[in-house]
Amino acid sequence: MKITNIIAYPVWVGSRNQLLVKIETDKGFFGWGESGLSGRELGVKGIIDHYREMLLGVNPFEIGKIWQRLYRSQYFEGGRTLTAAISAIDIALYDLKGKALNVPVYELLGGKQRDMVPTFATTSAAPGPEMIEQGKQLIDKGWQAFRLSLSPDGGEGKYESIVTKSIKEDNIYEPRESLAKTAHWIIESRKELGNEVSLGVDMHHRLSVAEAASFCNKLPNGTLDFIEEPIRDQAPGAYEALRKMTNIPFAIGEEFASKWQFMPFIENDLTQFARVDICNIGGITESMKVAGWCESHYIDMMPHNPLGPVCTAASLHFGVSVPNFAWLETRYSASENQGFHYLTDKNGDEIFNLSHKMKGAMHHVSDEPGLGIEVNEDYLKNSEFKSWNAPQLHRTDGSVTNW
Ligand SMILES: [Mg+2]
Fold first, then answer.
1. How far is the centre of ligand 1, averaged over its atoms, from the C-alpha of 267 (Å)?
2. Hey, what's the torsion of the CAs at 305, 306, 310, 314, to 10 degrees?
3. Residue 204 CA, ligand 1 centroid: distance in Å
4. pLDDT tens-digit profile of 231-280?
5. Ligand 1 center to residue 347 CA distance, Å?
6. What is the DSSP letter of 123?
7. Element (H or E) spanning 116, and its range?
8. pLDDT (0 to 100) of residue 336
9. How far is the centre of ligand 1, averaged over its atoms, from the C-alpha of 115 (Å)?
10. Of all helices (H) and strands (E), which one includes residue 259?
11. How far apart, in whole angstroms, are the C-alpha atoms of residue 241 and residue 210?
12. What's the pLDDT at 43?
């Protein structure tokens, strides 16, 4: 079998752009992948177009060798734009191989290690009484783990949430004010939600080491079960410093673009949950290697999954196949409206057909061949890319801060 075409579709689906990639072969088999570098899809498409020329005529079953070739092909190895492109190609190759061999992708990864994939949800209401109510709803619906909201409040006393995208028009983020309010309502949440549920918060890498330490130290021991990305991740030494100032477990890694970026965080036990993003790290091939490495340090996988159904399907096959697994991120929960709205367009036309079904907080993984997903390619052909940038946050004094 030979690869005959690779097509990248950077198109608006639902409420965001998705970069979907299709690989075709001379035997009629094809596979779908997705890339995760949100907001920079056109750059990744450029790389995929380069890779297309290299892969025409290649045996699509040689997935590991293709990964090595793509990563090491140009003398300048790696980088997140390259690995976002490699991820989509790698996932599509697994989908294709599963279909060609008539087995679900998890059978290519050693088989199932669990019957279902547990998920974690996120509250969407701003820190306050409504957020606690959402937490109760989530527990009621079966979630045993979720993230509470972070307040991006600029200091006017009205809580707003990044999850509901109601960031103030002027896009101000003042860490000290936000952290005081967030800490207050997280403490209240723990009192009301009890000790059985696992609670976390995602700081979206907005803080300095000092700010992160102040936040953690406002919380009584045991209030949080994890804190996600309190600081930016290029400096493992900064995490070593923060580790000495708090005992809250860290959840880090959604931005990592290779096993080598994970290396210092695993080897030095700097993260307790590995937030691997299968559409950025380098696909299923690289995710399995990171999972194995994490297993040797008793670190559980907690995949980042904010994209489309192809990402979810790939993450499910990965999640069901590794021994060390905590929860898969889901945007389909009692506290978020986002659901699977992107499965159909406004006219009710189906964009994706997903054979995996959620029951409460648990995801069942289908036994369909490949990833177990169908994509309406005609819909993609008739869709367009829309220019979109993440909110450009700044502080009251005008200086730049991360979203
Ligand atoms: Mg995150």
1. 22
2. -10
3. 5
4. 999 999 999 999 999 999 999 999 999 999 999 999 999 999 999 999 99
5. 32
6. -
7. strand 116-122
8. 81
9. 26
10. helix 259-267
11. 10
12. 97
Residue in the structure block whose two tokens are 């002027």: 170
**Six token digits for residue 363:** 């995801």
Q: Report how far ligand 1's centroid is from the alpha carbon of 227 (Å).
A: 10
Cα of 271 vs centre of ligand 1, distance in Å, is: 14
- Cα(292) to centroid of ligand 1, in Å? 22
For ligand 1, the distance from its centroid to the CA atom of residue 174, given in whole angstroms, is: 19
Please tell me the predicted confidence (pLDDT) of residue 152: 64
Q: In which element (H, E) is residue 80 found?
A: helix 80-101
Phi/psi-derived region of residue 401, left when phi > 0, alpha when psi is between -120 and 50, beta in every other case: beta
CATH architecture of 3-103: 2-Layer Sandwich (3.30)
Amino acid at residue number 129: P
Same fold, 3-103 and 108-370: no
CA of 73 to the centre of ligand 1 (A): 31
CA–centroid distance, residue 350 to ligand 1 (Å) = 29
The DSSP letter of residue 394 is B
Highest mean pLDDT among 162-166, 310-314, 356-360 belongs to 310-314
- List the shell of residues around ion ligand 1, using CB closer than 5 Å: 202
How many A from CA of 143 to the centre of ligand 1?
Answer: 18
Distance (Å) from CA 65 to ligand 1 centroid? 31
Distance from the alpha carbon of residue 35 to the mean position of ligand 1, in angstroms: 17
Residue 121: the pLDDT is 96
Mean pLDDT value across residues 48-61: 98
For residue 43, report the distance from its CA to the centre of ligand 1, in Å: 22
pLDDT, one tens digit per residue, over 273-321 is 999 999 999 999 999 999 999 999 999 999 999 999 999 999 999 999 9
Which residue type sits at 302? M
User: 24 pairs with which residues across the strands?
Assistant: 5, 30
Residue type present at position 18? Q
Q: Is 119 left (phi over 0), alpha (psi -120 to 50) or beta?
A: beta
Instruction: Using the mean position of ligand 1's atoms as its centre, give its distance from the Cα of residue 254 in Å.
Output: 7
Give the pLDDT mean for 157-181.
62
Query: CATH classification of 108-370 is 3.20.20.120, yes or no?
Result: yes
pLDDT in tens, 84-129: 999 999 999 999 999 999 999 999 999 999 999 999 999 988 899 9
Q: Where are the domains of the chain?
A: 3-103, 108-370
Q: Which two tokens stand for residue 281?
A: 């790290």
